[in-house]
Design goal:
5% helix, 50% strand, Maltoporin, Chain A, 2 domains, Phage tail protein beta-alpha-beta fold, mainly beta, five-stranded mixed β-sheet, 6 helices, ion transport, transmembrane, globular, 22-stranded antiparallel barrel
Length: 891
Amino acid sequence: MGIGAVQAAEPGPDASQRSALIRFDIPAQPLDSAVLAFAEQAKVQVFFDSRKLAGLRSEGLHGEHTSREGLALLLGANPVRYRFGGNDQVGLERLSDDGKALELGATRIRSVSDGDWVYTAPRSVAVITREQIDKRPPRHAADMLEETAGVYTAVNQRDPGLSVNIRGVQDYGRVNMNIDGMRQNFNVNGHQQRNGIMVVDPEFISSVEIEKGSQSGMGGAGVLGGIASFNTVQASEFLGPDKEYGGRIRAGHGIGELGNGTYFNGSALFAFGNEAGDLLLGVSERHFGDYRAGTNDKDNLGTQIRAREVWPQAWENWLESEVGDMGSVTRSRLFKLGVNLPQDQRLQFNYIETDTDSKDAWTWPTDDLSAFYYQRSGATDLNAKNASIDYSFTPDNDLIDVQAKVYFVRTRMDRWNAASTASPGSGNWFGAYNDRFQTDTWGLQLQNTSRFYIGAADKLTINYGTELFEDRFKPATDRVAATNEQALPYVEGATPEGKKLTASLFANAQYEHGDWLTLDAGLRYDLYRLSGASGMTLWMYPEGTWEGAASTKTRQTLLFDDTTEQGHFSPTFGIAVKPGVDWLQLYTRWGRGWRSPAVTEVFMTGRPHAGNASEMVYPNPYLKPETSHDWELGFNIFRESLLRDGDRFGLKVAYFDTRIDNFSFLDVNVNLPDETSSGTGLGRMAYQNNEETTRFRGVEYSLDYDAGAWYGRLAYTHMIGSNDFCSRQFYMGGAKQVVRVGTVTRPVQVGNRIVMRQFPVSEAQANDAMSNQITCGNIMGNATYMPADRGSLTLGMRFFDNTLDVGGRLRYSKGNGANLDTPGYATLDQALWPKYKVYDLFASYWMTPQVNLSLALENATDQAYFVAMGDVNNLSLARGRTLTGMLEYRF
């Protein structure tokens, strides 16, 4: 097919022959951005070298055409040849004056994965691209998310586990954290409510997509905060028409003394494929060690962190010394095998395994109080195995677009815990012991999308399907209790098992009228079944009456062997309009969410973490599901050629308001049945439902401008308000009072005579007033305080035909330090998130089309800071000034 000077190579015998008409609306613009718009609207992948298309323009494309006709018209008279390959892929080559193809730089591939589409989506969504990730090489997986509006992470610098917080909401499935759609539901009680963690290797990430708020599509079951999808690399990223093998090799290291504990980091990916199928193999290894934190602007840290006001000399030593026992090693493997079946079907097997070793340590003052030293309290091996089989069926039929997945995820944490520091003869000593926490998740997903074209201006899209997954919780411990311990798990030497099955049906309809009105409505039904066995060891009064005013309690065990089942409907609704101009879109959304309790929240019994403290978590079989009501109001602006020919400008602003009833939190001061006084249970913990409505609201700003030679990005999140956390002091009831109910007369020998004497008779009676007592503020977790405001600004320039990219970034937080100078110990958590301004510099140079050298200087001004929402209880400051380099080779 040829239009003017356009030459189309003959397609292979298995190339896609799609003939369905597609409605295009692509304005005149530079050819490279026009091709990206074509790829998005035609739902195909386009491979090309953006440098080779520089200087070419397209007159645009409008109306209904097949994908082949549309591409030919879009290219017009430009000297470009195209070829359609299998699996909806298109390759472009620029022709020289003699009609031959110019050399194609495989490293400069552009496709529909760019993030411009978020500025036209009528909802709150964000995308982190691979390009953004590479500008700041992640040491912790949380680094990938730090520049995204509305997204936080409770970071423990020692723990590579990632816990995603969206708009203040996280943990126990409130946010669906997934890798290629496979839910990462591992959870174990941890500091700062980092109770639902995943392990993901940034080397294998292609992009991260964040959907905010309740969802009525795939992945929305049990979701209150949103969906965080970590998409790993695919073979198609390295292959293309007439390119049957390819890959990427990366090797990086810290540079000199500025390496600051950053050692070898690298990966290798190899892809092979053709029209019949493809194979992708990958390995990755990452090494980190002790590092120095920043020391400038140390007064931002306040007077209370690490006892600065009490031990100033030791505090200065702590700040200026290396953060000790930070060594960690992460190794990952990836295997993907895809087969292209007849009639537009595809089957793919995926396997990803990540294993990471890390340490737990705490700081202790020296005897002369002149310094702090680090003492190891535990060591952790965290292993995650992910396997799935994906199936797709996408024929030339607008009613059929089937996607299916079956998967299995096993995440296991093996944790060594140090022995008690008490003297062996004190009765409080216990030996070193090992814990194991394992969560097995299997899941099934099935969905179809049907599209209906009504007349010339209307389109109806219906997405519907089902999601099913089950979590099995398998913990164990070999801990032997100290002699004096009275609060014990009901099974000494082990903790209980449990499982939760979640089934969901959903349907979502979107109606588009012309290019100015979009309506969508969805409904999902979630059903869960939670089962397990647990219990608690209590000291209880005897039944009935006894002689005397007091009675000796005896140790009793309460057992719970329970199965709970419940279902719930959750609707969503949205509307978006373009008020007379193509570049502005106004939208609003409303939805409801519902989350059932997790196995850990209901059945956990035992010590919550490593170390020498005597805290104990008790089960709560009466925990209720959470329900949410969320709404948002926002607008999008997306303009091309705004300030200069070919530039792109995107702006997204949204106000959000999420209210959660029965919010579950870890209460750190509960009383147990048969106790006669309240408020005396500090360190006795249980998950409780908040008696108050928990509310998270704020405003998000995202801006992206790219003029080719220079660009900028801005993201900022402003949180509003605060929450109260109130619950029943006797969370299971059963408060008692000892009451004298009578007397009994018995003979008593006094000297050499027998006399009759009256003795009191007492009974433990229910104390309803105390059982119903509500107390507030006894919360452990990052929900204690609203997340601190946070933002980032990135500015960069490109030189030498876009081969050299240099720039800088400002990361800012105004902090949330209510207790930085004045301690408030009503709760164990302190609002210790100091303000900070951190500057980073980066440079990337493609020396050849295949070889890239990148440098990154993080925290150039050596700022002393914590990441906003970070785990201050661990007291691991972020890295100081750190310089790293990365060499990448693509083929």
